[in-house]
């Protein structure tokens, strides 16, 4: 027998098997969407969907600005009349960096789902609103007292951080409102209309 003939027969049978699978058959090849999560360290899972979201990006930029403001204030030599303003703005930026980093880590690793006793959307909104106000006061105070280049740079980055925290305040307020609606309306929660990584599984 011709071995090539057997090979052609095998190919024909394979093509027939593939054609016999109709579009309504339950044995269709499926391509499920892989969740946008990646393993990290010690069993924790990094939620890349939150990291890439608007809230996650805003928080990362805020943390960078907090560090820059702290560095600018730290490089001020003789503060003379701006010592009180520099000390206050330094307190604001360091406090904002610690709190914002903590909230970012909680959301990035999905820990808000495990610590459900705390209303995290409300906590995030209060944090953003508070540091928006403090950065505005501190930057205005610093702008009136700064006499060195480092002090002026700290003032500029302080106002930039104020704008970012104000944007994040509005964003977190929107998330908080959605979370309140989801808690009051269990039907919408069951239907899964809310796909925001910050508010899902909180109700």
Automatic annotation (TrEMBL):
Pfam families assigned: MARVEL (PF01284)
Its membrane topology: Multi-pass membrane protein
Chief location category: membrane
InterPro entries in alphabetical order: Marvel, MARVEL-CKLF_proteins
Transmembrane segments: 57-76, 88-110, 122-147, 153-173
Domain MARVEL: residue ranges: 50-177
Subcellular location(s) per record: Membrane
Protein name: CKLF-like MARVEL transmembrane domain-containing protein 4
Species this chain originates from: Phallusia mammillata
Gene: Cmtm4-002
